[in-house]
Amino acid sequence: MRIDRAEEGDAQECGGVRPHAVIDGGAALAPDRREQAADNAWYRSLVQETEAAAARDLWVRALPGFRSEWERLEQRYPERAQAAARTQPDGSWVADGDRQLDPEQNAEATKACEDIRAEGTEVILPAMQRVEAADPERQLAGLEHMLKGEDRLKEKIADALKARPELTVAQALSIVPDPVRFTLIYSTERYADGVRADVERLKAEGFELIKLKNSWTDGQYKGINSQWRRPQTGLRFEMQFHTTQSLEAKELTHKAYERIRGPDSSPTERRESEAFQRRVNALLVTPPGTAEIKDFPEKKHG
Amino acid sequence: MAEKITYYAIVDEFSSRDRPGGVLRRVMDDEGQIDEVFSRDLKWEFSPLLYSAERGDTMFDFVPISEEEAARIVERIRELANPDD
Description:
heterodimer; A: 302 residues; alpha+beta; five-stranded mixed sheet; 10 helices; 8 strands; B: 85 residues; five-stranded antiparallel sheet; 2 helices; globular
């Protein structure tokens, strides 16, 4: 998008005022070059804000089409009936996709879920609410989902044990990153600074950063996910950092993700669900400054 | 498209890049793709873990590796399961 000149109304709408118009006009304080630089910065900011507004508009207009597209995909690949995850009479646990825990593993996971629920609600949540209160320009979202469901946690443990033959249940439980999870949402313009500030606020609350993964350059998912630990007990929790639109994209593609990771999905269904995820995410605006937020720990593999 | 297989080492806090904890393969062909891990049952089985990682999950790191390295991890898992063999 190109902007040749700013009209007065544009400036009001974007919350900006041409800087040299209000700066003391004395030549000693604001020589021509300084005025020019201030003008250039102001125009750049105006262009960014206008482009962001245009992108938001494009996103809003695209949403109905994406919803229709997903409905068509669901018609082509009807949802399969799944056997409910359940504890068997002998105390073992089974779920779709050959997931299983023996009675001892199941008992350990069940007890861990109770402990996580208590600590998540009584300790982690109040800390997150203090972090949220520090800045009124962004907020926590989806608190009703802050505790991972018991069966979903057991699925994750079963998947980990299958892939990691040497792990015990306790070890698998200890590295699940999101038994308790939160999401902070920001405006696109304030995203990068907001994430940096909130990472520091979480540290100031006494939590230890384990991992931070910046996925804004990825095709399937846009956002920043971080994994934290409460040193006193070792409990981990996840904080996701989203813009309003990236959270909408995540929610819009959730069912596609379920199809992609479903054990009974066909390769074709998986491929088309992935393509849908990519199309949705391709329309998201990457917030300015996001590329400077590095993964933690910084990648050293491979 | 001919079938293409990419192997990944699975790394977490109880393993390392030098001694990966497991191995995953992504098999791609004209139809689409499927991910499998070499499981404790000593067979390749479907796994959603890499899809989850691509969706932001931070539980495991997946490092692309050669077929030879993948074979070494498979062999190590077999030895763990049958230490007397």
